[in-house]
């Protein structure tokens, strides 16, 4: 999944890879669900640091092509 996401060129996004074994809460939540995709947004007023909101995205098929992943991300990044 990471390799496919890194191939997307028509969208601007930052990919952050997290190792679920580094935190017990992540491991407990995602042990059988990896890979997991989240969209992170900063909520706050202009010029201030606000809280970070993480919205889970639907889990794509492991067989999804780079183009299919790009289309899915485009849908969620546009909102």
Indicate the topology.
Elements (H helix, E strand, L loop, with lengths): L1 H5 L17 H7 L7 E6 L7 E6 L9 H12 L2
Antiparallel strand pairs: 1-2
Give an overview of the whole structure.
This is Glutaredoxin family protein. InterPro entries: Glutaredoxin-like, Glutaredoxin-like_YDR286C. This protein is an alpha+beta fold and 79 residues long. It has one domain. The chain has helices at residues 2-6, 24-30, 66-77; strands spanning 38-43, 51-56. Strands 1-2 form a two-stranded antiparallel sheet. A hairpin with a 7-residue loop joins strand 1 (38-43) and strand 2 (51-56). The chain is globular. The mean pLDDT is 86.
Question: What would the keywords be for this entry?
Answer:
single chain, 79 residues, alpha+beta, 2 strands, 30% helix, 15% strand
Question: Short description, anyone?
Answer:
This is Glutaredoxin family protein. The chain is an alpha+beta fold.
Intertermini distance: 23 Å
Largest sheet: 2 strands, antiparallel
**Radius of gyration of CA atoms, rounded to a whole number:** 14 Å
Helix count, DSSP H or I runs of 4 or more residues: 3
What is the SS-derived class?
alpha+beta
Average of per-residue pLDDT values: 86
Strand order of the largest sheet: 1-2
**Structure summary, number of beta strands:** 2
Please indicate the count of domains: 1
Helix content: 25-40%
Q: Tell me the fraction of residues in β-strands, as a range.
A: 15-25%
Question: Which ranges are low-confidence, i.e. pLDDT below 50, for 5 or more consecutive residues?
Answer: none
Q: What is the overall silhouette?
A: globular
Give the ordered list of helices and strands.
HHEEH
């Amino acid at each position: 999944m990471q390799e496919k996401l890194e191939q997307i060129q028509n969208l601007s996004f930052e990919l952050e890879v997290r190792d679920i074994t580094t935190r017990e809460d992540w491991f407990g939540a995602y042990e059988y669900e990896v890979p997991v995709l989240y969209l992170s947004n900063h909520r706050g007023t202009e010029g201030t640091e606000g809280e970070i909101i993480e919205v889970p995205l639907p889990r794509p098929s492991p067989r999804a092509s780079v183009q299919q992943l790009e289309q899915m991300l485009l849908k969620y990044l546009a909102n």
